[in-house]
Amino acid sequence: MFELRRGFKSEANEIAREIRGELGLKLADPLDPLLLAAHLEIPVIPLTELAADAPFGTHHFMQGDRDVFSAVTVFCGTERVIVHNDSHSPGRQSSNIAHELSHGLLLHPLVPALGPGGCRDWDPMVEQEAEWLAGALLISEEAALSIVRLGLTIDQAAARYGVSRAMIQFRLNVTGARKRVAVGRSAISSAALRHRGP
User: Which long-range contacts (CB under 8 A, 24 or more apart) does 125-132 make?
Assistant: First the structure.
């Protein structure tokens, strides 16, 4: 795992806030990646829609080896289209789509899917940035804090935000939400005791 460039996590949090503002959402509101895609005018095509034209490929990715393909951004000139594997769970589909949208939001350069040797052309730093921003979009820093303050279970939070349990756990961990809420509550309790006096 590569270390993200200095300041990137703060930048991702700010992008997540700006996007919620553009969509008319509060900072802790759930974000539907399909709504964001429509806002960005990026069509999103489920793999099942391509089944008639490519039955072998779609069958392989949707029933044979489902974990091999999550989503991809396809370019036609400057236009982007996202194709995603709709055989995945709804929570994973949200992450897959948010990941591809993050490439666009971060203006990652267009590169061919395959390199000269026919192998996938994959930049781990670019992919890690998109993964991190996707998490911040789906579970903003404010959303993570809200989950803890409301006392939601992992399952309740996953259902509320339309993501996987793993995404909720990841975002609670990386934002330090549990510790931050506990510290805040402790400070409030201490201040109340001081105010009450002996």
Answer: 125/2, 128/1, 128/2, 128/4, 129/4, 129/8, 129/12, 129/102, 130/99, 130/100, 130/102, 130/103, 130/106, 131/99, 131/102, 132/4, 132/8, 132/9, 132/12
Provide the mean pLDDT of the chain: 86
Q: CA of 5: how far to CAs of 84, 125, 141, in Å?
A: 28, 9, 19
Q: What does the pLDDT look like over 61-109, one tens digit per residue? A: 555 555 667 888 888 777 889 989 888 899 999 999 999 999 999 998 8
Residue ranges of the domains in the chain?
Answer: 8-140
pTM above 0.90, yes or no: no
Q: Tokens 């309790």 appear where?
A: 189
Where do we find the tokens 């999550």? 70
In this structure, the strands spanning 79-84 and 71-76 are antiparallel
Per CATH, the architecture of 8-140 is what? Answer: Orthogonal Bundle (1.10)
Query: Which of 14, 1, 3, 5 lies closest to 137, judged by CA?
Result: 14
